[in-house]
Design brief:
This protein has 112 residues and is mainly alpha-helical. The chain folds into 2 domains: 1-42, no CATH class; 54-111, Winged helix-like DNA-binding domain superfamily/Winged helix DNA-binding domain (Arc Repressor Mutant, subunit A). The chain has helices spanning 7-14, 24-31, 54-62, 71-78, 82-94, and strands at residues 98-101, 104-107. Helix 3 (54-62) crosses helix 4 (71-78) and helix 3 (54-62) crosses helix 5 (82-94).
């Protein structure tokens, strides 16, 4: 951005006179008629946590990574009732996102 030799290239990209490509497929997409040879946008593999609703996300965010916590503590951190938190923890446990240990709940990924 501050390199003088790059100024011309940056200006071409900024004004639409050039395109950035990273694969041959991108080049073919640019050369093909509009709407043909469209390259799929790369996406990361879907994770079990990607489709959590807001309440489940609140509970998961309140579950510790290293030190297990009891349900009331997680409920307070999540700003939810203990009953709602316990129900959501059960759902997260079934999905293998959290684990119940003797001293409380912990995120599964932290133990991998």
């Amino acid at each position: 951005m501050t390199s003088a030799p790059s100024a011309g290239v940056h200006e071409l990209i900024r004004t639409g006179g050039a395109q950035l490509v990273t694969t041959g497929e991108h080049v073919l997409e640019l050369l093909a008629p509009i709407g043909e040879r469209l390259v799929a946008v790369p996406r990361a593999e879907e994770q079990a946590t990607d489709r959590l609703d807001t309440t489940a996300r609140q509970v998961l965010d309140a579950v510790p990574i290293t030190m297990p916590a009891e349900t009331p503590s997680i409920a307070r951190a999540a700003g939810l009732s203990t009953a709602v938190t316990l129900r959501v923890l059960g759902t997260l446990h079934q999905a293998r996102i959290v684990e119940r240990l003797d001293r409380g709940w912990i995120k599964v990924a932290a133990r991998a």
